[in-house]
TrEMBL record:
Residue ranges of domain Protein kinase in the record: 58-325
Family named by the database record: Belongs to the protein kinase superfamily. TKL Ser/Thr protein kinase family.
Signal peptide region: none
Residues represented out of the complete protein: 497 to 821 of 824
Transmembrane segment boundaries: none
Name of this protein: Kinase suppressor of Ras 2
Location of the region described as Disordered in the Swiss-Prot/TrEMBL record: 307-325
UniProt: ATP binding residues: K84
Amino acid sequence: VADEIGDNSDVYLSEPENKISINTDEDVVSTNTSDDSNKTLVDLSVTLKEWDIPYEKLIVEDKIGSGRFGTVYQGRWHGKVAIKMQNMDPDSDNEDQLKAFKQEVAMMIKVRHDNLILFLGACMKPPHLAIVTSYCSGQTLFNSIRKEKFPINKAIIIGQQVAQGMGYLHARGIVHKDLKTKNIFIENGKVVITDFWLFNVTKQCHGNKNGNCLTISPGWLCYLSPEIIRLLQAGSTTNDLPFSFKSDVYAFGTVWYEMMCGNWPFRKLHPQAIIWQDILVTCWAFKSDERPDFGWLYKAMERLPKKPLSRSPSHPIHLSRSVDS
Ligand code: ADP
Ligand code: MG
């Protein structure tokens, strides 16, 4: 993904082959996708205006909840819908945020799969930036796992549907970046994955005023692959962090663990212990040649923080530099 979106520059979504160029002045998006097998380029021109929902046309009802990215409301627009209102970051340029938002909308338009949330349209006029999707009346996999025991057959059925939805996203060149059981709904036995557009529009790790405090929401770390965790620091943005198809696969491993064991892995551990879980995970690699040697282990342990910090509810970790340094 391009770091900066200049007026005349192209915006790349994950891979150059899956190119989305945006001219925000005219609200026109052109999408080039490439099929791996025949490398035929298909040109599509889509007018963002066709997907614009004027804010006044939406009926915003009860607040359902809020996450890192904004607030979700139940609402009405030709039927029951979910409305995800985007938080505008006061520290970032509004134009840039709008462009990033429109880029996500352009991506949403091309995502059509039975196991992915149905995008209906978006409010694209600041300050009301919102994504409108179908409303999921079922419960999240997160709640479902914690309410009842998950027999292996059920885990396989759910897991395969998640794999199908994620496989489709990856084939379209899209990295989810926030795959977790709270973003997987179960509607009458069918998996619906959501929130695969959110990460690119928001600063991931909000620093405090001094910029040296990283606040980590409970349960987030256990979905993050070691290569990402090592680079986490206050103020990190998605562009700084190496999200990839393989980091999505890591997150799926945690989803699978939850279905097997009924909760997050490393739940009772201090966040710093989770940060250094890569020692554990690499030693336990299924393939023997992927396990490290003791020289690597010695150095890895040398980098461990020596004094554990006291635990607090929101798990703030004080970092003046990357955990890797
Ligand atoms: P998180 O994913 O961390 O739970 P979100 O901001 O994505 O945070 O969601 C906030 C709340 O809105 C959650 O309770 C979530 O289940 C609910 N929610 C999100 N999208 C939908 C949807 N399409 N239909 C129904 N509820 C939704
Ligand atoms: Mg969510």
